[in-house]
Amino acid sequence: MTLANGQPYLAIPGPSVIPDRVQRAMHRGSPNIYEGGLLDLVESLWPDLRTLAGTSGHVAAWIGNGHAGWEAATANLFSRGEKALVLATGQFGHGWANHARQLGVEVDVLDFGRQAPADPGQVEAALRADREGRIKAVLTTHVDTATTIRNDIPALRRAIDAAGHPALFAVDCIASLGCDEFRMDQWGVDVTVAACQKGLMTPPGLAFVWFTEAARQRCGEGDLASPYWRWGPRIPGASDEFWHLWDGTAPTAHLYGLREALTMLVHEEGLEAVWHRHEVLAGAVWAAFDAWGRGNPQIAMNVADPDWRGRSVTAARFGAPQATRLREWCEHRAGVTLGIGLGMATPEDPASDGALRVAHMGHVNAHMTLGALAVMDAGLKALDLPHGAGALEAAAKVVAAGA
Ligand SMILES: *Cc1c(COP(=O)(O)O)cnc(C)c1O
Q: N or C: less crowded end of the chain, CB within 10 Å?
């Protein structure tokens, strides 16, 4: 039997739940792309996108997903043969490194493993060792969606400064923007990358890069960016022609959707409240895992220290193949789809059947997160998997204190 019929909940870390309002805003015929309302709407997006990233710098958008955002940032940051230092704390850090390498960048990876954030001391030492100043930029993820490790971006900036190294600092915020506190200018980030399908609650299809004027000048006319990816022509106002801003036809439906999502995040709820909501919902998930784990040492969150955990998604281990069994039960019996373990394979568990991820990202509220946890609790019982008691009580207390 199943109790899955009813409104399903896709609790995977992207694409995230799309608000009905965003869906309705996108459901319309093609507008004029040469003049009129669409042009005004796009003008109104830029200030909100800057607010979201906490910068007064440039922002540019491309039709594409997160990988497109990586490509846009990397291709403009580097010329062929220039060097990147990538701080990897999971599959997405390594993914960006591989992507950059394939573009023709020389890449050094500092691998911090899968359970702890990048260590500023090691970053400082690596930069000090670069006596010829060959490293053009340091690249890292804010939250790595695979391990769900959150890096301490201000501390990493301080490490670059302490080394006295001129490297630019570029941060992938694809999984964290609009969920986790991020302040590009205040934290000294030169280049920020994001996409619209996670915290920004819009179907996949828009990639963004924010960059400072100093970064633009330092990178000049790099030779990696083919015409579509050059950031110069994408700067709003760089051309009078709306057509040129998008290097062709604008992503019309997405622009209406994004306008609605930004209205919800920036103007209605407000960023501080958005961050608080994610903080509390993350805390509820963590409290449940702590309780389950007290009855079964095989159940544990991937990241031990709460300071090191992303506020938008939580990776956990259950001992293979229990995570896969639990995910399947939750989806097929109760209508909640949890995230698969990503980049979490071990020699004993090559298929990652012992890892899963619970997203608490974007358009989520207390009833959705508590519902997902209650379904997981029911799944543990139905499958007769050992677990500690009191998870839902603990999660409810976190919500009670934070609401
Ligand atoms: C999702 C994600 C990506 C990749 O985005 P796609 O849209 O799947 O290309 C890159 N980095 C991080 C941190 C992500 O969460």
A: N
Centroid of ligand 1 to alpha carbon of 227 (angstroms): 23
Choose the final residue of a domain: 211, 234, 268: 268
For residue 186, being part of any structural domain is answered with yes
Report the interhelical angle of 391-402 vs 271-294 (nearest 10°). 160
* Composition of the chain by helix, strand, coil, percent to 5: 45, 15, 40
pLDDT of 240 > 80? The answer is no
Distance 67 CA to ligand 1 centre (A): 6
Q: pLDDT for 298-331, tens place per residue?
A: 999 999 999 999 999 999 999 999 999 999 999 9
Domain identity same for 190 and 276:
no
> Are 219 and 359 members of one domain?
no
Residue 23 lies in a domain: no
- The ligand 1 atom at the shortest distance from the C-alpha of residue 142 is 13
| 231 and 85 fall within a common domain | yes
Mutate to test the pocket of ligand 1, among 16, 145, 254 (most ligand atoms within 8 A of CB): 145
Residue having the nearest C-alpha atom to atom 5 of ligand 1: 66
CA distances from 252 to 42, 206, 235, 243 (A): 10, 11, 18, 12
Ligand 1 atom nearest 144 alpha carbon: 13
92 CB under 6 A from ligand 1? yes
Q: Which among 295, 292, 376 has a CA at the least distance from the CA of 334?
A: 376
2, part of any domain: no
Give domain status of residue 254, yes or no: yes
Same-domain check for residues 395 and 282: yes
Atom of ligand 1 at shortest range from CA of 143: 13
